[in-house]
Design goal:
Layout lengths: L1 H25 L3 E6 L5 E4 L1 H6 L36 E10 L4 E11 L5 E9 L1 H22 L3 H31 L4 H29 L7 E3 L1 H19 L2 E6 L6 E3 L1 H18 L9 E9 L3 E7 L7 H6 L15 H11 L4 E5 L5 E8 L7
Parallel strand pairs: 7-9
Antiparallel strand pairs: 1-2, 1-5, 3-4, 4-5, 6-8, 9-10, 10-12, 11-12
The structure holds adenosine-5'-diphosphate (ADP).
The site of adenosine-5'-diphosphate (ADP) has 21 residues, from α7 and α9.
Length: about 375
């Protein structure tokens, strides 16, 4: 009876060990246990064996693929540990395997082995890909702040001229209209709508200057939840004047039920306006039915909204495409080449992406993403 119990206990112990080994073998990280005094490997899981091309038990832990801490890196020298000292943490850090160039997160602890010896129990996880992703994110951040810094005082002057010209010429037009009507003896009542519009344009110009000044001061954009359709309405109200003059129809296609975006409205309106104006410029030679420029907004997953400006203009050469976003790149006689550089800075400040591709029907499509309210992934 006694004997039977012992056997059952031994079976249960064996089953538990098998289960544990199965779990350890299922891990992607390399797990090993080595004698703390002479580095002899006592256990290695599947990932560790795969890395070393076969069984490693009995071999010495040095000179293997997984990088290990140098003696001096340990918190305490594992060779000098006695039974009562374990368990204790020996090492926790990132190590580079110089031969393969891969990075590992290595963690080692001193524990008592089944036979009472002190062993180093280690787990090494390959973090090369994670490190690469972090490096790409860092480079991206650097690029964003570089783009942002591009907006120097001189560039701001060009940008101001570019942005302010529109409301100023509208004001001049409204005033000229009023003068003509006054000379023709029009009543105050008749002049009022045009005067109101002129005053709105002046306010708009003031807002643009204030926002640009804040932007250059590197203050954070003032973001708040904003309905996409309101942003587009506002931007297109300005673009409408140019579009009508050019005989181009603006089509707006906003998907129903879009969530609000988390954005600085004035800045995003500037982006849309710039993209639409570029689209209109590119469509000078479009004919008949082609004279439509579409502004489309739709959800892009659950956390982003994509706004696209789709023209049917002359398109963009491969060679020019590379340089589009560089400040001062322009192919227009009167161009400043700042519009797209600024648009990209603004979109990236909003954690979005501005991209360009050929339009669905010739022409070009500029599309950018914005985080939705509550979905900002910063
Ligand atoms: P600008 O409009 O002052 O030239 P931008 O930075 O806005 O400055 O645009 C840079 C250049 O990119 C333009 O000169 C033009 O060559 C090209 N471009 C921009 N948008 C379009 C478009 N929708 N279609 C074709 N070319 C475009």
């Amino acid at each position: 009876m006694e004997n039977g119990k012992t056997m059952m206990a031994a079976d249960a112990g064996g089953a538990a060990r098998e289960r544990l080994e199965a779990v350890l073998d299922g891990l992607e990280s390399a797990v090993y246990a080595a004698d703390a005094r002479n580095d002899e490997i006592l256990f290695a899981n599947r990932a560790f064996r795969t890395l070393h091309g076969g069984d490693t038990v009995g071999r010495v832990l040095r000179d293997l693929v997984v990088p290990l801490p140098e003696r001096g890196d340990y918190r305490v020298d594992p060779r000098g540990l006695a039974g009562d000292d374990a368990p204790c943490e020996l090492f926790d850090g990132e190590l580079l395997q110089p031969r393969g160039g891969r990075w590992y997160h290595v963690r080692e602890q001193a524990v008592r082995w089944v036979d009472g010896r002190i062993v180093r129990l280690g787990i090494a996880t390959d973090i090369t890909d994670r490190k690469k992703t972090a490096e790409i994110a860092r480079q991206q951040e650097e690029r964003i702040s570089r783009t942002a810094r591009l907006i120097t005082m001189g560039e701001m002057a060009s940008m101001l001229a570019h942005e302010i010209n529109q409301p100023l010429s509208a004001i001049a037009n409204y005033c000229a209209g009023c003068i003509a009507r006054m000379q023709a003896g029009a009543s105050m009542q008749e002049l009022l709508p045009a005067m109101r519009k002129a005053s709105e344009q002046a306010e708009r110009a003031g807002k643009i200057i204030r926002r640009i000044r804040e932007f250059v001061k590197k203050s954070e954009p003032r973001r708040a939840p904003a309905p996409v359709s309101a942003i587009l309405d506002e931007a297109l109200a300005f673009a409408e004047i140019d579009a009508r003059r050019a005989g181009i129809r603006l089509a707006v296609d906003v998907a129903p039920g879009l969530p609000d975006v988390y954005a600085d409205r004035i800045m995003i309106e500037q982006v849309v306006l710039n993209l639409v104006r570029n689209g209109l410029d590119a469509m000078k030679d479009a004919i008949g039915d082609e004279r439509v420029l579409t502004v489309r907004a739709r959800a892009c997953g659950e956390r982003l909204v994509e706004i696209a400006v789709i023209d049917r203009g002359h398109g963009i050469d491969e060679e020019d495409r590379e340089r589009l976003f560089q400040p001062f790149f322009t192919t227009k006689a009167e161009g400043m080449g700042m519009g797209l550089a600024i648009c990209r800075s603004i979109v990236e400040f909003h954690n979005g992406r501005l991209s360009v591709e050929s339009g669905p029907e010739d022409g070009t499509m500029f599309a950018f993403t914005l985080p939705v309210e509550g979905g900002a992934c910063e």
